[in-house]
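Progress against Task 2.4 (sequence-to-structure conversion) is shown through the following example record, which the project officer requested during the mid-term review.
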Amino acid sequence: TDEQVVLAPLESRIQDITTRADGFKPAKPFADTKGEVGFPVPSGSEIVARFGQTLEDGRTSMGVGFQTNGADQITSVADGKVVYSSLVRTDNGNLYNQLIINAGNGHYVLYRTIEGSTFTKGVGEQVFKGDTIGNMPNQFTYQKCVGNCNTETSGSKPMVTVPIHSSQPKLYVEFRKNGKPIDPDSWWIKG
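Structure tokens generated for the chain above:
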């Protein structure tokens, strides 16, 4: 199908992807870009969860959550190579779009958004810091394929309008080093 739903526990899938991806070597090592990284969404987007923060459901945030405005572009925070891009089901059963960029030297950047958003880069594509890699949904509903979604056999995809169960779309970003989440705070441009 066009959208592969990953049913394995999400954390083990991320570990597997980040440990088996081929080595990408950026022009400037990601570790040397501390203090130079802009947010992956336009200014005015609010941080709603920080690394290490206890979330409403009792889990600890391993990344940063941004509350975005409809139709915001998502930009790459690092030079790198896309090693994963697919729809995933998290341990709590929710569906999200996820993209992982290998930023070199064991660094990875994981982006996770609500279903209905899109990533415009695929596995194997090289991206540069500041490149548009996706879009948040431009409304609080989106079109979802139901039933036979294979256009080769059905002619057209049967679509329904689905509400987004959020007051505003959110983007989650996680930095990892050798497969383990790290605090991204020192990478962001200050001021």
